[in-house]
Amino acid sequence: MREHVLLIGGGGREHAIARALADSEADLYACAGNRNPGIAELASGFETLETTDPDAVVDYARSVDATIAIVGPEAPLQAGVADALENAGVYAFGPNQDEARIETDKAFQRRFMRENDISGCPDFETFDDGEAACDYVDRYDGNLVIKPAGLTGGKGVKVIGDQVTAEEGKEYIRESDYDRLVLEERLIGEEFTVQAFVANGDVRTAPAVQDHKRAYEGDEGPNTGGMGSYSDATRELPFMTEADYEAAVDIIEETVEALEGYKGILYGQFMLTAEGPKVVEFNARFGDPEAMNTLPVLETDFLDVLTSARNREPLPDLEFAEQATVCKYAVPAGYPTDPEAGAKVQIDEESVTRVAQATDDSSGDDARENAGDALLYYASVEEWNSSDNQNSPNPDDVDEREDGIYTTTSRSFAVVGLADTIAEAEEIAEEALADAGEEGLHVRHDIGKADLVQRRIDHMDELRGK
């Protein structure tokens, strides 16, 4: 019997998951609060619903006879969607609500690390009183990171000594409406991510990825959900050693052993310091954009990972193509502080494929076996078809708007280049983005470029005293 896989979520990460399952011996169904046109094209069915409503997700899972579910975003995990699916007899590749606190409750996360003596834990304290937190800022010998304990979409953190002064940090604490905070030492180094596939006590890790949170080139501007990322053709990144990567994997394995029974993805975000990797945070799902670096080079059938997890069998060893990847997000102008929705998305799958083919042709016949590729992943966009929207609450839009795909106020789409080197992958991604134009969009063009990668290498050499 063919598996019926239910994918929960409608962003770029979930589009990457859908594409990873597209050629499997399974029928894919999806549900999300937004209709992602890339996922809808790959799925046998797509339902728009509130994914933090466990009953609604279970009802849809039953309607499509789902045999396996994979939960993409963190909010449904926090809402207990994985628990509800399991109770309904549908295997969910994702942690239950309690286990997901490793991401959804940063105060729990840090206390868990301390209580289980997990390596790489920074100095920290947790607070439920703002004035006590401000007193700690005054007493602490060094700079601190201010983190709300709950989910903030990657945009609630303030770093004293980088984004804000100590006085501005205290003002942020007093003016915010967060009822619980974590204050921890500011780590100096280079951030990277290792994502692990976890089930039945097994841990299988993917190549390291570096995300870029700042909105503007040169790592300037406010934090975002992630403007893009890159990985190398090896497991480690250019500023890391193989030992650095293995040290991060050891921390993930320590954490899985302490969690007991955890299943799904465990995403470790690390800061590589002069003393080795330290944990910035854990997430209970694939990263976005990091899934778009990892899944395109996964050569093992992702469905085999899911069925092995469900059947309580050893997870297969994961094989990854020895290719570098560069992911660049296009976001609405003004993102993240004052995003302007409504720009028409000019890029499509056909134009991205054409760019990759042109790049291949220019490299000559001898290089064709190792030619690069370009992939398009939709995230938060709105597909408009006037014939389907005659009853729009804004009837003028029916006449004024052309049919097509439009930006919302969140990240719009990502282009990923794959090639033998980071430089080649970056060139492919950049050429593919050229078809998108610049009107109404913002892109960090420096992600994956040689000078920015070299800055990371030089920074780590300086920290290590080389």
In whole angstroms, the N-to-C terminal distance is 58 Å
Q: In CATH, what is the class of the largest domain? A: Alpha Beta
Number of beta strands = 23
The CATH H-level homologous superfamily of the largest domain: ATP-grasp fold, B domain
Q: Report the biggest beta sheet as strand number plus sense, adding barrel if it closes.
A: 6 strands, antiparallel
Principal-axes shape call:
globular
The proportion of strand residues reads 25-35%
Low-confidence stretches: 365-370
Structural class call reads alpha+beta
Topology-level CATH name of the largest domain: D-amino Acid Aminotransferase, Chain A, domain 1
Number of helical segments?
A: 16
Calculate Rg over CA atoms.
22 Å
Q: Mean of residue pLDDT?
A: 93
Portion in helices: 25-40%
CATH architecture of the largest domain: 2-Layer Sandwich
Number of domains: 4
